[in-house]
Design brief:
seven-stranded mixed sheet; 11 strands
Amino acid sequence: MSRNLDFLFVFPNTPYGYYRGFTYHIGAARMIWNLRQNAFTAEQYCPQDFYTFAETARDMLARHPRFVGFSCLDVHFPLIADIAAQLKKQSKNVKIVVGGPTAMFSDEVILTHYPQIDLCVRGEGEQTVLDLAAGIPLNQIAGLSYTTDGVFRRNPDRHAMNEAEMNRFPSVYAPGLIPLEYSTQVGLLTSTGCFYRCTYCHFSVLSGARIRFFSDDHVLDEIERIAQYWSTANGEDITIPILDEAFTVNKKRTLRLCRAIEAMHLPISFTCGTRSDYID
């Protein structure tokens, strides 16, 4: 196997803290699309077999990535740190990048205590990973944390994308991104962020305390892709999780989407998360 990737993206599948291999990630799919649009090579790592950490690292390195990028929640970090150590043990050239909430809030702890990790991407990574792949000097990349000669460096934050910029990306289930058979596990987003500042939740900080919506056309196209796949795959009704932080926060939009979905007569049910004060 020889692919000479610029980026290999990795998302551990650890429901309730138990290791279940790896799965696909919506944010990684968007970063992959952006990299490919700019002539870089990238893919997600989702093997079907279970390996030891050493075997996992060897399998990743068989794709010859310049960067291995981990999407990380706190529950994932011990696993990521162990795999990153194996990657560095087997290759001194590969660069290990960690993004997600843990990288956003614990970048200094990670980079000063875990030498196997080279870089932390804070906030949205679509442009940051493109800058890394393009060889932009580290001190010029917004949203990046790193060390130089043992000294921790944190560059200024990167501005979050606006809705127009978000909607230029295709469905994450477009050909070559996330395989549709994973849609019941991966789910979909109709918006990102939250404007409430609950002390127990990181989403408002990650989003700058605002919500940005994908267009109705974007959402309905994604739903139709999923429905068409499952209607031909086995004919059974399936359930798709909507992963918005507060799906019903804009009632008019929620009802508009639900009516449009109902009119499509698709064999799909949905689950969603929201706030209790946005339920009738």
